[in-house]
Amino acid sequence: MITVKNLTKFYGDFPAVTDVSFNIEDGHVYGLLGVNGAGKTTTMNMICGSLAPSSGSVRIGSYDLFAEPEKAKALIGYLPEIPPLYPDMTVNEFLYFIAEARRVKKSEIGSHIERINEKTGLTDVSEKLIKNLSKGYRQRVGIAQAIVGDPETVILDEPTVGLDPRQISEIRALIRELGRTRTVLISSHILSEISELCDRILIISEGKLIASGTQSELCEALGISDRLVLNVKAPVKRAIEVMKGLGRIGKVSFDEISDSVCEISIVAGERDIREDIFFAFASAKLPIISMEMKHSSLEDIFMIATTPSEDSHKDGEDSDQVSDSIPSISSFFRSASVKKESRDSDGEDDDDEGYKPLFGRK
Questions:
Q1: In whole angstroms, what is the distance from residue 341 CA to residue 254 CA?
Q2: Under CATH, which architecture does the 2-220 domain have?
Q3: Which of 103, 158, 216, 313 is most buried as measured by Cβ atoms within 10 A of its Cβ?
């Protein structure tokens, strides 16, 4: 378990990370999500002890990272965004060097490296110089060095950046495999990667943690729901009349796509109303061009969570706490979901490179 409390980092007068607090529980894959420059790498470097914070604390297991760094760091493996590799070493030489640095028993290093090569798909290139490997294989070597010594937690900073689609798929499969036996923390700005790999999400924006939880928990906290979206060949006013006849079905918004087509968005409720809507518009002789259930996505969460609310800087005040930021984000969503006209179905308005030692060479 990793406990981060009030972590802050200033570069001169610039606050790169401000008062970030969160817990990494054992047995989960966490995603640290944010745009470029949001503070993800700075946060990662402080958690791993590569960068001293201006204030705050990090506990890894039962050890304070800054009071007992050797004991704390023994529990984690870290892959920076640019893998720290020695290009004139072979893969085995490099991993042997890392194993010695992490104090793996000499009698066990050979079998240990063999297992890691097998797990990370490096067996066939283990005697090749790192400089002669493709970027995808170099990334694998980076992940391999992070799991030397069998750390309980593996921290990966942008593990697929710069890779081609096939390499990305292979690295993601490797991360999923690691997640079965270790706690994993990944940073990324790629939404699909976080959504595919992670069961817990941390969103950082402008150096502040603004939301955390599972995807469903974040949807609930931000007021995001699944929506039924249909395009109808009808003017907006006529579509409103038809929707009124269905009674109260929850929040509905209308958007004029063209003079003769409008889009209707309905917040999904417990009852499936698609059949009722179909027959209502059929009776009115207004054809439904398309009807689709749009499920809430990580993209919805990210866009809403990282969009500042209108009053977020009012009177020069910023909210540093997640609990304080959620209401303003939620209120932003409610107002943003109203397009051209928004009302309930009853018609009422809704406001809603360095030295190169050689180890292990025979």
A1: 5
A2: 3-Layer(aba) Sandwich (3.40)
A3: 158
